[in-house]
Write a structure and sequence with these properties.
By secondary structure, this protein is α+β, with helices and mostly antiparallel strands. It has three domains: 3-57, no CATH class; 64-138, RRM (RNA recognition motif) domain (Alpha-Beta Plaits); 144-231, Structural Genomics Hypothetical 15.5 Kd Protein In mrcA-pckA Intergenic Region, Chain A, CATH 3.10.290. The protein is built from six helices and 14 strands. Helix 1 crosses helix 2 (27-36). The relative contact order is 0.12. The model has no long low-confidence stretch (mean pLDDT 90).
Length: 233
């Protein structure tokens, strides 16, 4: 665990021990915080059914807000995230970014609402406006995926990525070295990691994927595997 992650885990575990609520936690940090809270009573708040980022709380449900991002230009998840990060706001205060029926949304903790409204007015070169909307807009939201089946010689993550996106080993090795491969919300530098069912990984400039498992073995001892590619709705 990196020093940064260690600090985040300790800080959020202390919040629960002191009967408060955490900030938004991604699945990797959530797992580590939960391991620190054995013996403590708490609940997990999911802002919507398929939330990646969740909040642990003890008493009252945390106060969050759902903001619609209004733009005349087409936006992407990556552009929205990048512009939010450029505001130098603690990213734990920001939940999921959702693209749903050609609308753009971001979930935030209530205590940064005023700052976001004041400072978040551009995404790249696009001028935006923000409007608070009810969270129940997301009640019927479901992620969309492209389902792909490919044949690979092994379950190593570098083998799967190379086969799937069609780049050579040297280019891929550089991506790993530069932190361009994220596995289950952590930078992956182990090219020989064997993926497991439901592992999620993202590749810079190529998108986010989920390994759904082996469909069957071929006569040549290769694997036919199923992958989901996350797509913007």
């Amino acid at each position: 665990m990196s020093k940064k992650d260690y600090y985040i885990v300790e800080k959020n575990a202390d919040k629960i021990i002191n009967l408060k609520h955490t900030n938004f936690l991604d699945p990797s940090i959530l797992k580590k915080v939960k391991s620190k809270l054995k013996g403590y009573n708490y609940k997990i708040y999911y802002p919507y059914k398929e939330s990646d980022k969740v909040i642990i709380y003890t008493k009252e449900i945390p106060r969050i807000k759902l903001l619609e991002i209004i733009s005349y230009d087409k936006l992407t998840h990556r552009k929205i995230m990048g512009s939010l990060f450029n505001l130098h706001i603690n990213t734990e205060m920001i939940g999921d970014i959702i693209i749903y029926n050609d609308h753009y949304y971001v979930i935030i903790l209530e205590n940064i609402y005023d700052l976001i409204i004041k400072e978040f007015n551009m995404i790249g070169r696009s001028t935006i406006k923000l409007k608070e909307v009810p969270l129940n807009i997301l009640d019927n939201y479901q992620r969309k995926y492209e389902i792909t089946e490919i044949i690979v010689s092994s379950l190593r993550i570098d083998t799967i990525i190379s086969r799937f996106i069609g780049i050579n080993r040297e280019t891929l090795k550089k991506k790993f070295m530069d932190g361009g491969v994220i596995l289950n919300y952590e930078v992956c530098n182990k090219t020989n990691y064997n993926v497991k069912e439901n592992d999620a990984f993202s590749i810079k400039k190529y998108g986010k994927y989920k390994f759904m498992g082996i469909i069957k073995n071929t006569k040549k001892d290769n694997y036919i595997i199923k992958l989901y590619k996350f797509i913007d709705n």
